[in-house]
Amino acid sequence: MIHLEPREAASEWLSLVDTTPAMVFDPQVCRAQWAGLSQALPGVDLFYAVKSNPYPELLSTLAAEGAQFDVASAAEIRMLESVGVGASRMIHTHPIKTDAEIERAVASGVTTFVVDNVDELWKLIPYRHAIRVMLRLSFIAPDAPIDLSKKFGAMPKDALSILDVANDSGIRVDGLCFHVGSQAASAYTHAEALAHCLKLCEAILAEELPPIQRIDIGGGFPAHYLNDPIDLMAFCAPIREVLQTVPDGMQIMAEPGRVISAPAMALVCKVVGRARRGDAWWFYLDDGVYGAQSGRLFDGMQYRMTVYTSAEEIAPCVFAGPTCDSIDELGRFPQFPVLNMNDVVVMHEMGAYTLASATHFNGIAPPKVVTRTLPDSVPGIERA
Ligand SMILES: Cc1ncc(COP(=O)(O)O)c(C=O)c1O
To answer: Can you give the pTM of this predicted structure?
Structure first.
């Protein structure tokens, strides 16, 4: 989805940034997303998934809202500590960890860990008196483009035998968790998986294994890319229905990443080179897949763009990033205005899995972040 605007209108973005490429972070949008998801999932304890965007001001914005955090490494723990968040507000949810990672996380004071197999349980035995563990199960959302269910998660049918081993090893498994896949198009799999876990809790009790006290429904809540704008309240309705059946005393948790961080940042780029190659015009932007747009390759994402240009001629065109690698291509369009040097391209909902995986390939630095209010013209943005 591309909006075209006159080149002069780019001033509302260029006045926010000293240089391009730049990421504009709006804390109000971040807070609004947090509040929106909290309202859509009443009674669910939210743990922001730091992996989606560990930008310090974003972390401190959420910390000030009372957020808790989901971490995957000791480095993420340190990032949170550096903005004043203590380990009591963190859970460590990486199902596969090195011994050194576990040791560092326990030393920092993290007490919740995740496993999805018995080898991972063995690693936790030395710390069993200091920690609580959640068993990750695999549920596949057919409508989530980023499938995590093959790489992680025990098959639900194997849950009882893993819990048996944990019990015999003196490891306290008091939680079940899952991640249905990122950028899910609906919450039906979240709801079905939660219902499945609730049934499993009964089977666990019937086997006289220690009771499950918490279920973590993971992430997967979507951002507004080329899909329709997201109504979080409507999206979460299937989950709310199952929440009504949760027994008293059972804690329900979630680990949202993308839905919180994506809308809070926009990327401002410029055309820094152009060339006619055969029939097509190539436009080279000052950010590409080695910078903030790796999600195009890693996740198959396409982003909403606003292009500010006074161009009138139309031709086939290719957008590319600034590096020397041929894979650094951003999109092909059969009919597009022939952009001029310094025309401005703004990409929306760019906060998730962008800066977090940006590189310095070719010595080109990822976009700098500035904290500003996003212009009112950005469609579908709410502020708190
Ligand atoms: C364990 C875990 N929790 C939470 C998340 C965040 O997911 P999302 O950004 O889809 O909300 C991820 C993403 O990969 C994850 O692996």
So the answer is: 0.96
